[in-house]
Each structure stands twice: as structure tokens, then as C-alpha cells.
Design goal:
The protein is mainly alpha-helical. It has two helices and two strands. It has a two-stranded antiparallel ribbon with strand order 1-2. It is elongated, with a radius of gyration of 15 Å. The chain starts with 16 loop residues before the first helix and ends in a 5-residue tail after the last strand. The model has no long low-confidence stretch (mean pLDDT 81).
Length: 70
């Protein structure tokens, strides 16, 4: 993600301490900033959801269950 041409937006999130601690340890082991690690994990989750097609987005960009097609 470091070499990405994507424009990033800084934000603040509140995380449960145990989740923050896990992410902090992983970010240190990988040698990447925590914000970058969180962005990577969110993009992986987005890709996984698209592949599994369990969820989709409505016209407002909000998640909703995917329509099942047969």
C-alpha cells in the first residue's frame, strides 16, 4: 500500500483494547504503520465480501444482504 497512488484520508476510530493491541503487535512485526495495516485489512475484507457475494451495497453505499440468484 505504500506505493499506492490512492489519496488517503486521516480519521480517528475507537477500538476495543484487545483489538488495538493485536493490531499494534502485527503492525510492529510487519514494520508498517497501524493506519496502513488497518486500511489493508479493510480492503481485504471488502474483497472477501465481494468474492463471497454475501453482502452488497445499496444506492447509498450501505451494506445489505445480496439478492440470491438461481
Amino acid at each position: 500500500m505504500k506505493n499506492s497512488k490512492r489519496k488517503l484520508k486521516r480519521t480517528t476510530v475507537a477500538l476495543p483494547y484487545d483489538l488495538w493491541e493485536e493490531l499494534r503487535i502485527e503492525s510492529i512485526k510487519r514494520g508498517v504503520p497501524m493506519g496502513e495495516l488497518i486500511a489493508i485489512k479493510l480492503m481485504q475484507l471488502k474483497d472477501l465480501k465481494q468474492k463471497n457475494a454475501v453482502m452488497s451495497t445499496d444506492e447509498h453505499g450501505l451494506l445489505k444482504p445480496s439478492e440470491e440468484t438461481e
